[in-house]
Design goal:
mainly alpha; two-stranded antiparallel sheet; globular; Arc Repressor Mutant, subunit A; single chain; 151 residues
């Protein structure tokens, strides 16, 4: 089955999924936020075949989400680091994590938790707010299409 491409879609969600929607890619980004940098460490943590990991890392680099830099320990190795574009995926991953915590674990079931390093407290639940700071529900939001899409 051939995968549908969305790079020309007027929908930002479709374009985002075209870039980072493959689940291994998001797990690679998750691990990068946790400090993973080297190919072998990604492979060990994810249990991913070398060819699949290589393809995903190449795409993340090509899309500007990660970049290869010289290893911080001065060896001849290269390591992968998140770019600004990649670091801005943090709210996406936190939203997915919080949704998963709420709906995919039984009450009292153990799971990992993100905490604020300074306060040593769990993160506040993400929410959508308008420019005035008021919380928004789905019924408070409207999708506006560009004029050329209405024709």
């Amino acid at each position: 089955m051939q995968r549908t491409r969305f790079e020309d879609s007027i929908c930002p969600v479709a374009r985002s999924l075209d870039t980072i929607g493959e689940w291994w890619s998001l797990l690679i980004v998750r691990d990068a936020f946790q400090g993973t940098r080297r190919f072998s460490d990604f492979q060990r943590k994810l249990g991913l075949a070398r060819n699949v990991l290589s393809a995903r890392l190449k795409k993340l680099v090509a899309c500007g989400i990660m970049e290869m830099v010289p290893a911080s320990d001065g060896t001849a190795y290269q390591q992968y680091v998140l770019t600004e574009k990649g670091r801005e995926l943090l709210p996406v991953l936190v939203a997915m994590r919080q949704w998963g915590e709420r709906y995919l674990f039984a009450p009292g079931e153990s799971h990992s938790t993100l905490i604020d390093k300074k306060l040593r407290e769990p993160l506040q639940q993400l929410s959508l707010k308008n420019a005035a700071g008021d919380a928004l529900a789905p019924e408070d939001i409207e999708l506006v299409m560009p004029p050329e899409a209405k024709a």
